[in-house]
Specification:
Bact_Acetyltransf; Aminopeptidase; two-stranded antiparallel sheet; globular; transferase; GNAT family N-acetyltransferase; GNAT_dom; 5 helices; 177 residues; 7-stranded mixed beta sheet; acyltransferase; alpha+beta; single chain
C-alpha cells in the first residue's frame, strides 16, 4: 500500500451503514496481529475486541457525537476519530489509523480535523483519555498540545472494549482551543 498524503484525504461523518466496516477497521488498528504493524497497538495490554457493533451504534447515537472517517481518493478507509461534545469540551476518542500507514501524517491530520470541528461547535477545549502505560502515545499527544490534567479514571469494565491483562488506568489530557 502506498502512503497517502493527508492532503489527498476526505473526511466524512460515519452513519449506521458504516458500522460493520468501522468495527473491523478499529479492531484491526488496536488489537490482533495486524495492529502490531503499527506503534499504537494495544494487543499486548488487552484481550478481545476494541469495539463491537452494538457499542459503536450506541456511541454514534449519543447526543453531540460524530465519528469522522478519513478516506483516500479511491475510497479506502485509512483513519477515523470519535468526537462527542460535552458542554464547552469536545471529547476525542478512538483515534484510529491504519497500522501500515502510521507515521505518515494521518493521525496529525485527524487531530487537526477534530480541532477544527471542535472550534466550529464553539468548544473551548479538547479532552482525551489515554491508558497510563502508553508512554509513547502520551508523549505523542503532548507534542500536539495536550496536557495532563492530573485526573485518572479506572479503565472501562465493559468487555465490549476488551479485557485488560493487567490493572490499567486512564489519564485525562486536555488541549485548550
Amino acid at each position: 500500500m502506498n502512503p497517502t498524503p493527508p492532503s489527498a484525504l476526505t473526511t466524512t461523518p460515519a452513519t449506521t451503514a458504516d458500522i460493520p466496516a468501522l468495527v473491523s477497521f478499529v479492531n484491526s488498528v488496536y488489537r490482533g496481529d495486524s495492529s502490531k504493524q503499527g506503534w499504537t497497538t494495544e494487543a499486548d495490554l488487552l484481550d478481545g475486541s476494541r469495539i463491537d457493533a452494538a457499542s459503536l451504534a450506541e456511541m454514534l447515537q449519543a447526543q453531540g457525537a460524530v465519528l469522522l472517517m478519513a478516506r483516500t481518493e479511491a475510497g479506502e478507509l485509512v483513519g477515523s476519530v470519535y468526537l462527542q461534545q460535552q458542554a464547552e469540551t469536545m471529547y476525542l476518542g478512538m483515534l484510529s489509523v491504519n497500522p501500515t500507514l502510521q507515521g505518515t501524517g494521518i493521525g496529525k491530520y485527524l487531530l487537526h480535523t477534530a480541532t477544527d470541528y471542535a472550534r466550529q461547535q464553539e468548544c473551548r477545549r479538547l479532552k482525551i483519555t489515554v491508558i497510563s502505560v502508553r508512554h509513547e502515545l502520551l508523549a505523542w499527544y503532548e507534542r500536539h498540545g495536550y496536557r495532563r490534567t492530573g485526573e485518572e479514571l479506572p479503565f472501562h469494565e465493559n468487555p465490549a472494549f476488551g479485557t485488560p491483562r493487567q490493572a490499567l488506568t486512564l489519564l485525562v489530557l486536555e488541549k485548550p482551543l
